Amino acid sequence: MHHTLNMLYRERLLPRPLILGLAVALFLMVGVAYSRAFGSLLGVLLGLSVSALFIGFAFATAPHIRLEEREGACFLTAGRARISVEIIGSVTQLSPTQRVEIRRGRSADTAFSIIRGSLPVVELEISDPLDPHGLWCLSTRRPQGLMRAIAAAKGPKNG
Predict the structure, then answer these.
(1) Beta strand pairing call for 81-84 and 111-114
(2) CATH code (residue 152)
(3) Quick one: 74 and 49 in the same domain?
(4) Cα separation values, 41 from 45, 51, 98, 143, Å
(5) Residue 139 resides in a domain
(6) Exposure of 122 by Cβ count < 10 A (0-12 exposed, 13-18 middle, 19+ buried)?
Protein backbone atom coordinates (compact mmCIF):
# COMPACT_ATOMS: atom_id res chain seq x y z
CA MET A 1 0.00 0.00 0.00
CA HIS A 2 1.44 3.36 -1.03
CA HIS A 3 1.16 6.25 1.42
CA THR A 4 1.41 9.70 -0.10
CA LEU A 5 2.74 12.50 2.03
CA ASN A 6 2.12 16.11 1.13
CA MET A 7 4.26 18.58 3.10
CA LEU A 8 2.24 21.80 3.43
CA TYR A 9 4.67 23.65 5.70
CA ARG A 10 8.10 22.88 7.12
CA GLU A 11 10.41 24.87 9.36
CA ARG A 12 13.28 24.02 11.65
CA LEU A 13 14.09 26.39 14.50
CA LEU A 14 17.86 26.30 14.17
CA PRO A 15 20.13 27.84 16.81
CA ARG A 16 20.71 31.57 16.68
CA PRO A 17 24.15 33.03 15.90
CA LEU A 18 24.55 33.77 19.62
CA ILE A 19 24.63 30.03 20.30
CA LEU A 20 27.33 29.57 17.67
CA GLY A 21 29.26 32.41 19.31
CA LEU A 22 29.04 30.53 22.59
CA ALA A 23 30.55 27.50 20.86
CA VAL A 24 33.51 29.62 19.75
CA ALA A 25 33.92 30.95 23.30
CA LEU A 26 33.76 27.37 24.60
CA PHE A 27 36.47 26.37 22.13
CA LEU A 28 38.69 29.21 23.32
CA MET A 29 38.16 28.44 27.01
CA VAL A 30 38.77 24.70 26.68
CA GLY A 31 41.62 25.20 24.23
CA VAL A 32 43.46 27.67 26.43
CA ALA A 33 42.91 25.66 29.62
CA TYR A 34 44.06 22.34 28.17
CA SER A 35 46.87 23.89 26.11
CA ARG A 36 48.42 25.13 29.30
CA ALA A 37 48.09 21.72 30.98
CA PHE A 38 48.74 19.27 28.10
CA GLY A 39 50.30 21.23 25.24
CA SER A 40 48.99 23.27 22.34
CA LEU A 41 47.99 20.51 19.95
CA LEU A 42 45.99 18.53 22.50
CA GLY A 43 44.39 21.73 23.80
CA VAL A 44 43.25 22.78 20.31
CA LEU A 45 41.95 19.27 19.51
CA LEU A 46 39.99 19.08 22.78
CA GLY A 47 38.63 22.58 22.27
CA LEU A 48 37.49 21.73 18.74
CA SER A 49 35.95 18.45 19.92
CA VAL A 50 33.97 20.09 22.73
CA SER A 51 32.78 22.89 20.43
CA ALA A 52 31.78 20.42 17.70
CA LEU A 53 29.79 18.37 20.22
CA PHE A 54 28.10 21.54 21.49
CA ILE A 55 27.15 22.70 17.98
CA GLY A 56 26.03 19.20 16.97
CA PHE A 57 23.81 18.94 20.04
CA ALA A 58 22.33 22.41 19.38
CA PHE A 59 21.44 21.48 15.79
CA ALA A 60 20.26 17.94 16.62
CA THR A 61 17.83 19.17 19.28
CA ALA A 62 16.43 22.06 17.20
CA PRO A 63 12.66 21.51 16.96
CA HIS A 64 10.76 21.08 13.70
CA ILE A 65 7.38 22.54 12.85
CA ARG A 66 5.65 20.61 10.08
CA LEU A 67 2.19 20.55 8.58
CA GLU A 68 1.63 17.31 6.67
CA GLU A 69 -1.25 15.81 4.79
CA ARG A 70 -1.39 12.04 4.49
CA GLU A 71 -4.32 10.14 3.05
CA GLY A 72 -6.68 13.08 3.45
CA ALA A 73 -5.81 13.85 7.09
CA CYS A 74 -3.70 16.87 8.07
CA PHE A 75 -1.48 16.98 11.13
CA LEU A 76 0.61 19.71 12.70
CA THR A 77 3.82 18.49 14.33
CA ALA A 78 5.81 20.75 16.65
CA GLY A 79 8.82 19.14 18.26
CA ARG A 80 7.58 15.75 19.45
CA ALA A 81 3.93 16.81 19.74
CA ARG A 82 1.42 16.12 16.97
CA ILE A 83 -2.16 17.26 16.55
CA SER A 84 -4.86 17.03 13.90
CA VAL A 85 -5.68 20.34 12.24
CA GLU A 86 -9.36 19.49 12.64
CA ILE A 87 -9.21 20.40 16.34
CA ILE A 88 -7.30 23.66 15.84
CA GLY A 89 -9.58 26.63 16.43
CA SER A 90 -8.41 30.19 16.02
CA VAL A 91 -4.86 30.94 14.97
CA THR A 92 -3.34 34.32 15.85
CA GLN A 93 0.05 35.94 15.88
CA LEU A 94 0.92 37.30 19.31
CA SER A 95 2.11 40.85 19.79
CA PRO A 96 5.60 41.39 21.22
CA THR A 97 4.01 42.19 24.62
CA GLN A 98 1.96 38.99 24.58
CA ARG A 99 5.05 37.01 23.54
CA VAL A 100 6.91 38.35 26.59
CA GLU A 101 3.98 37.37 28.84
CA ILE A 102 4.03 33.82 27.44
CA ARG A 103 7.79 33.58 28.01
CA ARG A 104 7.32 34.75 31.59
CA GLY A 105 4.89 31.93 32.25
CA ARG A 106 1.38 33.19 31.45
CA SER A 107 -0.78 30.10 30.86
CA ALA A 108 2.29 27.90 31.35
CA ASP A 109 0.12 25.25 33.03
CA THR A 110 -2.21 24.89 30.06
CA ALA A 111 -0.22 25.88 26.96
CA PHE A 112 2.10 23.67 24.96
CA SER A 113 4.98 25.97 24.02
CA ILE A 114 7.98 25.93 21.77
CA ILE A 115 9.33 29.44 22.11
CA ARG A 116 12.74 30.43 20.79
CA GLY A 117 14.36 33.79 21.52
CA SER A 118 12.81 36.83 19.96
CA LEU A 119 11.06 35.01 17.12
CA PRO A 120 7.38 35.81 16.49
CA VAL A 121 4.91 33.50 18.25
CA VAL A 122 1.72 32.03 16.78
CA GLU A 123 -0.98 30.95 19.22
CA LEU A 124 -3.27 28.07 18.28
CA GLU A 125 -6.48 27.48 20.18
CA ILE A 126 -7.22 23.76 20.59
CA SER A 127 -10.93 22.89 20.55
CA ASP A 128 -10.65 19.33 21.90
CA PRO A 129 -11.97 19.35 25.50
CA LEU A 130 -10.00 16.17 26.28
CA ASP A 131 -6.67 17.72 25.28
CA PRO A 132 -4.77 18.91 28.37
CA HIS A 133 -3.32 21.81 26.37
CA GLY A 134 -5.93 24.36 25.37
CA LEU A 135 -3.32 26.45 23.56
CA TRP A 136 -0.22 25.85 21.51
CA CYS A 137 2.31 28.68 21.35
CA LEU A 138 4.90 28.18 18.61
CA SER A 139 7.82 30.37 17.62
CA THR A 140 8.27 30.70 13.89
CA ARG A 141 10.37 32.74 11.52
CA ARG A 142 7.43 32.86 9.10
CA PRO A 143 4.24 33.42 11.14
CA GLN A 144 2.10 34.42 8.16
CA GLY A 145 3.24 31.36 6.22
CA LEU A 146 2.36 29.03 9.09
CA MET A 147 -1.03 30.69 9.57
CA ARG A 148 -1.81 30.48 5.82
CA ALA A 149 -0.77 26.81 5.71
CA ILE A 150 -3.04 25.94 8.66
CA ALA A 151 -5.94 27.87 7.10
CA ALA A 152 -5.39 26.08 3.78
CA ALA A 153 -5.24 22.69 5.50
CA LYS A 154 -8.49 23.40 7.36
CA GLY A 155 -10.25 25.04 4.39
CA PRO A 156 -11.35 22.04 2.29
CA LYS A 157 -12.41 20.08 5.38
CA ASN A 158 -14.80 22.82 6.51
CA GLY A 159 -16.25 23.72 3.15
Answers:
(1) unpaired
(2) 2.30.29
(3) no
(4) 6, 15, 50, 46
(5) yes
(6) buried
